[in-house]
Amino acid sequence: MNMKAIMIVFKKELTDLLRDKKTVIVGILIPLIIFPIMFGLIGRSVEGNIKKTSENLKIAIQSQDKSQLAVFLKSQKNITVVDSNDIKKDVQEGKIYVGLIIPQNIEESIKDEKSAEIKIIYDDTSQNSNMACNIIKSLIEEYSKEIVKSRLMSKGIDYSILTPINIKEEIAAKDEGGFGKFMLSLLLPLMLIIYGMTGPMAAATDLGAGEKERGTLEPLLTTQAGRMSLLFGKLLSITVMGFMGTVSSIIGLMIGVKAGGSVFGGDMPLLLSPITVIMIGIFVLLIIMVFGALELSISIYARSFKEAQTYLSPLTIIGMAGAYGTYMIDVKNVSTILFNVPLANVSLIIKEFIIGIYNPLHIGMTFGWNLVYIFLAVLFARYMFSKEEVIFRA
Amino acid sequence: MIEVKGLCKYFKNVKAVDNINFTVSEGEIVGLLGENGAGKTTTLRMIATMLKPTSGTALINGYDLLKEPDKVRSNIGILFGGEAGLYDRLTARENIKYFADLNNMNENESRENIDRLVKMLDMEEYVDRRVGKFSRGMKQKVAIARSIVHNPKVMLFDEPTLGLDVTSSKIVQDFILSCKNENKAIVFSSHSMQEVEKLCDRIVIIHKGKIIEDMRVDDFKGKYGEDFEKAFVGLVGDK
Ligand SMILES: Nc1ncnc2c1ncn2[C@@H]1O[C@H](COP(=O)(O)OP(=O)(O)O)[C@@H](O)[C@H]1O
Ligand SMILES: [Mg+2]
């Protein structure tokens, strides 16, 4: 193994891979634009929908549409009362968002200081109907508070008697953006692990099985560059490709979150400091190296491109399991033992970084273990590259 | 010069190559002739250090392939199989240069050699284009230039015209003859008696991993007559 040969292989492979339109589009370009497009569209449409619904609430009121409450509701700018012969059916069909049934005797009940019962008919499978129901409910609540106020006033009692305790909420997170960070800590580790796994895959397939299929492996093996130089040059370029893919998907995600607007917490990515991003980047890089080496080992064993792709798919499932396994774990009180588990440890450490925990023991364990995994994966790749049965598998 | 000494290669219980011995002198073309599965590729792969012999060894320009595989590799050039085996997304020059670099050539040497080969093989027009869209013949020339860019003293050809059209075959055959003029030691495997007769100085017939005949082409004609195909079938059929 010599450094010069490794660099020659590395440079050639990177040039070759970057000239492959398919690899660049699938591995780098699509991750970069898929999130902005996806989140942008979702965000826009969700936001637009919310606006549309709340600005023009179509409701129907049955029987007492001359009552004070009905007048109050009608006086709201964003409410349109429409006629309906069959409220239930119209709600189901989405012609109106909600229907109100106000009892005949409502005015008397209020006057007599009794309780009146109002029915709201809505469709809990419809987002619009749910939203409209909530808005109407709070309007009715507001209205009923006014009634209580006047009732109390007429008795000479202060309204505040009804609220002996006022609750004021304060978030105990260290700094701003707690919710955004929480969302990020769910989403990002999952994505990064999946990217760390799939990112190097195309390159690994091309550089192992592809070399066999093209018939370039034999001449390559008779050059002065030893097999280990070939292996390490290839590993290096696979790692770089994988990392570029991951970085572009993260950038894509950040742009996407922005494009999605308030639905995704708006400025979520700005919540991560440069140091956090670098720390996360280091651990993602480790994962890419582990998977890159494993994928190259499998790929060199395969006789063809197709075969390599078939062999590589089970690896995806393992990666997914590792990522989803820690998806819901709350890192605020996580057991240290979990930092011995492959993939889980990286997922957890990324979660910790995102919410601002830098636990030296956890960092050390995760880093150490992943070095071990890389060592083992590279050892495996070395073994595969030196086996005649693998290289010349007939 | 190549000296093959008792080379054996067993795959599990298949004796792919079974104790073969032959030598190739400088400026000599030796044809390794045998049917499919006779052990030609395995023999050449061992000489090229790609496979470890089960026993026996070979000396390439005096270097033992077991003891000094690096030295052996710097002394051999290979052209294996009919398919050229190139990187489609690299230019012809980049393809050749990659192998020059991997063989430890410095910039000057490799540039000079590549320029000379490009001229010799008439590749000026397309040497800086990506090989993906090249014709069979153009690709063959690139593969040829790549095999020899590091000035090896020994050339190994494994059925290099397999599946090629007439033009591409001719390019390869002319190249083999030009290697002879440069005084290289050449092994050339084939299952075509005609091709061997046309190109080779000496014939080594291999069958089921064993050498069953090894003599000069002229002597072969004397012993078995002019009809090479018939002679070959007769020899192989016996065993
Ligand atoms: N990698 C391998 N593993 C197992 N058997 C092999 C391998 N390579 C070749 N063989 C066997 O060795 C014998 C010789 O093969 P080969 O050298 O390819 O013959 P030829 O090149 O003359 O057609 C055949 O029986 C073949 O099946
Ligand atoms: Mg063969």
Automatic annotation (TrEMBL), chain A:
Bilayer-spanning residue ranges: 24-42, 178-197, 235-257, 269-291, 311-329, 341-361, 367-385
Q: Where in the cell is it found?
A: Cell membrane
> InterPro entries under this entry?
ABC-2_transporter_component, ABC2_TM
A GO cellular component annotation here is:
plasma membrane
Q: What is its main location?
A: membrane
Query: One MF term in GO for this entry?
Result: ABC-type transporter activity
Q: Is Cell membrane included in the keywords of this UniProt record? A: yes
Name it.
Sodium transport system permease protein
TrEMBL record, chain B:
GO MF annotations in UniProt: ATP binding; ATP hydrolysis activity
Record domain ABC transporter: where: 2-233
Q: Which InterPro entries match?
A: AAA+_ATPase, ABC_transporter-like_ATP-bd, ABC_transporter_ATP-binding, P-loop_NTPase
Q: Does the keyword Ion transport apply?
A: no
Q: Which family does it belong to?
A: Belongs to the ABC transporter superfamily.
Q: Which PANTHER family has this protein been placed in? A: ABC TRANSPORTER ATP-BINDING PROTEIN, ABC TRANSPORTER ATP-BINDING PROTEIN NATA
Q: Please give the Gene3D superfamilies that the UniProt record associates with this protein.
A: P-loop containing nucleotide triphosphate hydrolases (3.40.50.300)
Q: Per the record's keyword annotation, is Repeat included, yes or no? A: no
Return any one Pfam family short name. ABC_tran
Q: Organism, per UniProt?
A: Caloramator quimbayensis
Going by the entry's taxonomy, the superkingdom of the source organism is recorded as Bacteria
UniProt-recorded name of the protein: Sodium transport system ATP-binding protein
List UniProt keywords, sorted A-Z: ATP-binding, Nucleotide-binding, Transport
